[in-house]
Amino acid sequence: MKIFPAIDLRDGKVVRLLKGDYDQMTVYGDDPVAYAKEFEAKGAEFLHVVDLDGAKDGDTPNFQVVKRLAAETGLKVEIGGGIRSEETIKRYIDAGVYRVILGTVAVKEPEFTTEMIRKYKEKIAVGVDISERHVAIHGWKEVSQITVDEIFEKLADDGVSCIICTDISKDGAMQGTNQALYKELSEKYPVDIVASGGVSSMADVAALLDMGVYGAIIGKAIYNGAIDLQKAIALAKSIEQADVFAALFDEGGAK
């Protein structure tokens, strides 16, 4: 399983929201690159970044910060928040971003989303934010009539490679992640699913590993020390290595 430490950006600062509420924001620091380098030093290979200003307003006010994160670290940076045009997608990819996450536009402009998935392939992921099994949009300020199953079926048909799924009710609450939801989705749909929201203990990480989820995003639990990032990454890698050894044994020794 891939571990994605998270950096949420607002006004260029590292912040976390509680359940997506912009009025319940904690500021952790004003140097996102320093945080990213610290994650990298602990063994991280990926970085999940959300431009909260962009998610709310539909633009890219933190673009230069994201560009620095990609240029000044060796991390595979994925970015979401306010990405609603091909111009923005290309701008981020040209800046060295590993993957661009479409969110609101996947609900508001499904044809455009289909086109971008088919054109840019693995460079496109879709963020599906869930509130009581419906998809939330516009920085979680609005809940659509689209259900989680409807959008997952559509995106799977479109050939999306990765869906980042957040249970808003769990996000930032430090009360555990929605294991039942991720187990259900990973069993029903043939896409890589990254679990987000409420991953707040090593037990959560272990449970997601056990069910075979592709990845887990960890935010607040890293910042408050509830999860040791280095240990979480080591746990994920130990499972991957065990799978490799098992495959080698099957190919060689088991014969």
UniProtKB/TrEMBL annotation:
UniProt keyword terms in alphabetical order: Amino-acid biosynthesis, Cytoplasm, Histidine biosynthesis, Isomerase
Annotated Pfam families: His_biosynth
Keyword Isomerase included in the entry's annotation: yes
Claim: Cytoplasm is one of the keywords in the record: yes
Signal peptide (residue range): none
Main location: cytoplasm
Known catalytic reactions: 1-(5-phospho-beta-D-ribosyl)-5-[(5-phospho-beta-D-ribosylamino)methylideneamino]imidazole-4-carboxamide = 5-[(5-phospho-1-deoxy-D-ribulos-1-ylimino)methylamino]-1-(5-phospho-beta-D-ribosyl)imidazole-4-carboxamide
Top-level EC class as recorded in UniProt: isomerase
GO molecular function, one term: 1-(5-phosphoribosyl)-5-[(5-phosphoribosylamino)methylideneamino]imidazole-4-carboxamide isomerase activity
Listed transmembrane segments: none
The family this protein is said to belong to: Belongs to the HisA/HisF family.
Protein name: 1-(5-phosphoribosyl)-5-[(5-phosphoribosylamino)methylideneamino] imidazole-4-carboxamide isomerase
